[in-house]
Amino acid sequence: MSNEMLDLIEKEIKSKSITDYEIFLVEGKAYESIFLKDKVDNERDINEFKYILRILSHKEGKTGIGVVKGNSLNSKEIERSINTCILLAKSNLGSKFHFPSKASFQDLLISDKKVIQEPLNIKKDLAEELISEIKQYREIQPTFGRFRVHIDELSLRNSNALDLSILKTYFFIEFSLKAQQNGKLSEYWPFLFIKDRNQLNFSKRVEKWVRLAQDSLIAKIPKQNKNATVVFSPWVLNKSLNPVIGNHASGKAYHQKISRFKIDEEVASDDITIIDNGLLNGGTRTSGWDSEGSPHQRTEIIKNGIFQKRLYDQKFALLSNQKSTGNGIRKLTGTVDNGISNLEILPGTMKFNDIISDISEGYYIEQFSWLNPSKLSGAFGAEIRNGYYIKNGKFDYPIKLGNISGNVLKLIGECQYISKEREYFENSLFPYMVFNNLTVSS
What we know:
With 442 residues, the chain is of the alpha+beta class. The protein has helices at residues 2-15, 75-91, 113-117, 119-135, 202-215, 234-248, 251-255, 314-319, 352-357, 408-411; strands at residues 21-36, 39-59, 62-70, 93-94, 140-158, 163-181, 184-188, 191-194, 225-232, 274-277, 298-303, 306-307, 328-330, 336-338, 343-345, 361-368, 379-391, 394-399, 403-407, 415-424, 428-441. The chain has three domains: 2-215, 2-Layer Sandwich (PmbA/TldD fold), CATH 3.30.2290; 218-239 and 347-441, no CATH class; 259-342, no CATH class. Helix content is 23%, strand content 41%. The strands form three sheets. Strands 1, 2, 3, 4, 5, 6, 7 and 8 form an eight-stranded antiparallel β-sheet that branches. Strands 9-16-17-19-21 form a five-stranded mixed barrel. It has a two-stranded antiparallel ribbon with strand order 13-14. The longest helix is centred in the first third of the chain and has 17 residues, at 75-91. 42% of the residues are buried.
């Protein structure tokens, strides 16, 4: 079906004698169960279709890029989208640009055959397994939840003879768990995308969710500390490191002269190695190619604390006389940004429990209520949602509220420990990491 739709759109484009174009097609299917308490309240199937056109206009050594989104295959609607795209391309001339051409791609399996063949049965079985795990804990009550199975087909065709298609499957979980004791109420409400079935691990996840919901009932406001030792979970690392490291490692930031990273200079502790890995098994952004059709690859950004290489999409690769590293990320608007695919941090030498036992006083943070560091400065300040105060090598008591502030660019230079254990969180595979000199306020 995708080829037929691509042919239809391409035919309309060629009828207008357009020679530089790109069609990015998304066909998404989602199968969702919605829960009230521990019962299915609603089942629904969701179908999404959209295409994104990019058309180039060249004049006097410059190129304009028109971008338009469409969701109708009516010939008049397609023609209207093309005409709008042409006008936009002519009105925003910028640096010289061309679309990627044919290249070698790694053939990756990023879909689950059983999910594609039996999405409704797989959803039913997994949702029942999740509810069964939750029901084992009488000390909590589920209040609301969602479980979805996703199947996406992404297709890309351009005027440089690129013709690509991938099929990917993944899952979404959202569940609210309520705990109650002595008139107090608390709630733990996780929501996350998970790439593979073997990452679901409901028994371990639910056990953790229940503990966090219960511990929130007795959590205290953390003690103030201006030079705190803090342990960050993989969730926290994903939210803090990805936007900042991704920005300063990009060719875009280098071109705009705002990158703090210089090649071959020390930017982090010598035990930190960070890799942008578009081929990462289990990453949510894993595929053989990025959203422009450039090959995904494994790029060492920081190796033993030393900055190694920048990440490029097609635009900033051309501006810097480099090759794209496969870091063109399609945004919701349809435009392409220069960003990360999947980030991976290599594991350390100590187990998590041994790391905790070595901390005389510190704080473990499972989640912040909100974490949005400045991509430019690296500064952040966020309220603790779930965490623990560490005393004499043990979790002494749960903590919540209060605030932790610091700077991502500074804290990666003050890393004390990196755990052996690593966990996936969406487009990252991260260990637990311990940083010094953060500020905890109540």
